Amino acid sequence: MAFMKEKIKILIIEDEESIAEFIKMGLEAEGFMVYTHFEGNSAASIAKEINPHIIILDIMLPGMNGYKVCSEIKKLIKTSIIMLTARDDIDDRVLGLELGADDYMGKPFSFKELLARINTRLRNCFPELANIISVGLFLIDDGAHEISFQGKVLSLSPTEYNLLRYLLVNDGLVLSKQTIIEKVWGPEFNGEENIVEVYIRYLRDKIGDKDHNVIRTIRGVGYKVVVG
Predict the structure, then answer these.
(1) SS3 at position 156
(2) Of the chain's two ends, which shows fewer C-beta atoms within 10 Å, N or C?
(3) Residue 168 belongs to domain spanning
(4) Where are the alpha helices (DSSP H) in the chain?
């Protein structure tokens, strides 16, 4: 299970550009869409324009401070705010949380911990994003009951969806026709095994797999998906 990170937007509001760039590079390497802003006065309007899922917000900003920025942003959009500060006073933390911050990290901090906190905020505030399974160029959205390939949503019947999903989550494993029938059609299915061949053909047509490079036939055994 994975977040669809290329659709998750993170805004860093931090006046120390070296820190902002450090965080940005790390998060982009993780696959997130990342934006930076360096002062407080226009931070709320920038946040409204970008509408990020996560905001990493420094308290000590030029112009409007992070506390006021946090309060303003929370009035405008649904987002999760992680506040950063070099100050370690418990009263500062309480104030930030009272103004709408969702989490708090003191400087210096480890990127690994920041990433863990971001993932926690995503799971808690945007659980629908955790219903995405990423397999190569395929994205399985169980919430919407959709599968995308190369960025386009495939038009699939319920059976096609269930079959393709089963093949994808078992990427690289050889699956017999009988196993596929039991998992996709159910153990009570009394039809012919060649129903699998028919639906495999449907799927190959829909993803343009003319050479059977994605959904491969293992003669005498069954099928396997190779997306890596």
Answers:
(1) coil
(2) C
(3) 136-225
(4) 17-29, 43-50, 66-76, 90-98, 111-125, 158-169, 177-180, 194-207
- Please compute the mean of the pLDDT values over residues 178-193 and round it to a whole number: 92
Measured CA to CA in angstroms, residue 80 lies from 62, 108, 123, 157, 191 at distances of 22, 21, 11, 36, 51
User: For residues 53 and 32, what is the distance between their CA atoms, to the nearest angstrom?
Assistant: 11
Tokens read off for 142: 């169980």
Single out the residue in 131, 164, 196 at which a domain terminates: 131
β-strands 33-37, 9-13 pairing: parallel
pLDDT on residue 1: 44
Same domain, 111 and 205: no
Domain match, 91 and 194 both: no
pTM > 0.70: yes or no? no
Do 122 and 59 reside in the same domain of the chain?
A: yes
Sign of the CA dihedral running 106, 40, 102, 10: negative
Q: Which amino acid is at 56?
A: I
Q: Which two tokens stand for residue 148?
A: 């995308």
* 13, 99: one domain: yes
Residues near 92 by beta carbon (within 8 Å), at least 6 away in sequence: 59, 85
